[in-house]
Write a structure and sequence with these properties.
By secondary structure, this protein is mainly alpha-helical. Helix content is 68%, strand content 0%. It folds into two domains: 78 residues, no CATH class; 61 residues, no CATH class. It has seven helices and no strands. The longest helix is centred in the N-terminal third of the chain and has 22 residues.
Length: 145
């Protein structure tokens, strides 16, 4: 019964997140690329969405650090703020490059997938393929000559 409750709560919050992305227009790639275009038609709305996300997440992380277990069971998986390594920087760079070029990141990509958006139909499978490639050892991706 607890598992059904966990899935239901996760689905509810996923729908709420998706609705928030639609309302804030974060599913529109033009809004994202305009935010990244400082020299052109800059649109600061993404900055406001990010600030709202931090305002919601910061107290939640503070509560999680003090709590022993999540309300619905399991364990907290909090990020390690002290470890910044090559893989993190490389992954963040690739994510940022893809985000800037496509104007889509995984959350909005999934929302757009539900609308059969052509960009999302290309983007989401590429994200899935990239996730599998990221698990391969680097030596297998770039064999020596």
């Amino acid at each position: 019964m607890r598992e059904i409750l966990q899935i239901g709560v996760a689905a509810l919050f996923g729908l709420l997140f998706g609705f928030g992305l639609i309302v804030s227009q974060m599913t529109d790639p033009k809004v994202i690329t305009d935010f990244l275009d400082f020299a052109g038609d800059w649109n600061p709305s993404l900055l406001l969405v990010m600030a709202a996300g931090v305002a919601v997440a910061a107290p939640a992380f503070a509560l999680a650090r003090r709590g022993r277990h999540p309300l619905l069971g399991g364990d907290f998986a909090l990020p390690d703020r002290l470890t910044i390594d090559r893989n993190l920087l490389l992954g963040a760079g690739i994510f940022g490059l893809g985000w800037g070029l496509a104007g889509i990141c995984p959350g909005p990509g999934l929302v757009l997938l539900g609308t059969f958006d052509l960009g999302a139909l290309i983007f989401v499978p590429a994200v899935i393929a990239g996730s599998f490639l990221a698990r391969l050892p680097l030596a297998r991706l770039m064999p020596r000559s």
